[in-house]
Amino acid sequence: MEAALCPKCKRQLLDDGQCLYCTTAEALDLREIIPVRELSAPPAEKVLTLVEMDSGRSFKLDAPRVRIGREPKCQICLDDVYVSKTHAFITYEDGQFWIEDLGSRNGTKLNGAHIVDREVLNIGDVVTVGRTDLRVE
Predict the structure, then answer these.
(1) Is pLDDT of 27 > 60?
(2) pTM to 2 decimal places
């Protein structure tokens, strides 16, 4: 017999018929993360760039979602021991870029303040991930 799946997120239901993921998200009033396949890349005129302030390396934000972390699979891979394997992501949604911490140990800062929820990125902002500062251009 095949396990029953949640009609909303397609994950396996618990024995009581409840979805652990959906009920937890509702109880904690968490925002549902939109799957990348349902997002659109930013148009060329909206593409922003993150510039690593120490090295000058630059990273174009030209995908619907960009992962930041130490893992090589991240689009922005940083060699900083204070950065989590998958630390944060930036999503292009509703015509804006949003940055969101993924529960990293050291958090993510925007203009010196820790991000609690997701925040909109603007030109001139400074994102701090671990001990790495990235300027939005």
Answers:
(1) no
(2) 0.75
